[in-house]
């Protein structure tokens, strides 16, 4: 989590996620072994179904470099690095996250012609 996030939100997020350590092990196994789709990213058509990837600059689990590298492998995907945000943007600092989320949704609306 980013040090700029409010203490009360950081502690609440830490508490919430610390309750599921066994689930976290399963999650890691699932997305790194059972469901590793890195070799199929090129099959995703980001022009047909817009993809906007958001990664916080304080995310040490899925770094901005990981997010940008992944977005480059998806045709038409856009990558946005979120400043002063970690891995849990919606709970650790929603006010800082909200503009990035709105920007991503606007990009999707622009590309699909919906609103």
Tertiary shape: globular
Strand order in the largest sheet: 1-2
Uncertain regions spanning at least 5 consecutive residues: none
Task: Count the E strands.
Answer: 2
Element pattern in H and E: HHEHEHH
CATH class division: Alpha Beta
Number of helices: 5
The CATH architecture can be named as: 3-Layer(aba) Sandwich
- How far the N terminus sits from the C terminus, by CA atoms, comes to 32 Å
Topology of helices and strands:
Elements: H1 7-18, H2 21-34, E1 52-56, H3 64-72, E2 78-82, H4 89-92, H5 94-112
Parallel strand pairs: 1-2
InterPro entries: AB_hydrolase_fold (IPR029058)
Protein name: Alpha/beta hydrolase
Word description of this protein:
This is Alpha/beta hydrolase. It comes from Streptomyces brasiliensis. Helix content is 50%, strand content 9%. With 115 residues, the chain is mainly alpha-helical. It has one domain (7-37, 45-112): Rossmann fold (3-Layer(aba) Sandwich), CATH 3.40.50. The protein has a two-stranded parallel sheet with strand order 1-2.
Could you provide a short overview of the structure?
The protein is mostly helical and 115 residues long. Helices cover 50% and strands 9% of the residues.
Features:
Rossmann fold; globular; 50% helix; 115 residues; mainly alpha; two-stranded parallel ribbon
């Amino acid at each position: 989590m980013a040090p700029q996030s409010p203490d009360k939100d950081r502690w609440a997020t830490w508490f919430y996620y610390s309750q599921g350590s066994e689930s976290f092990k399963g999650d890691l196994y699932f997305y790194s072994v059972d469901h590793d789709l890195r070799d199929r990213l090129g099959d995703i058509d980001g022009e047909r179904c817009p993809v906007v990837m958001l990664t916080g600059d304080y995310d040490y689990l899925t770094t901005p470099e990981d997010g940008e590298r992944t977005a480059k492998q998806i045709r038409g995907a856009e990558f946005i690095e979120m400043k002063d945000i970690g891995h849990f943007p919606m709970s650790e600092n929603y006010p800082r996250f909200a503009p990035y989320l709105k920007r991503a949704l606007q990009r999707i609306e622009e590309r699909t012609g919906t609103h």
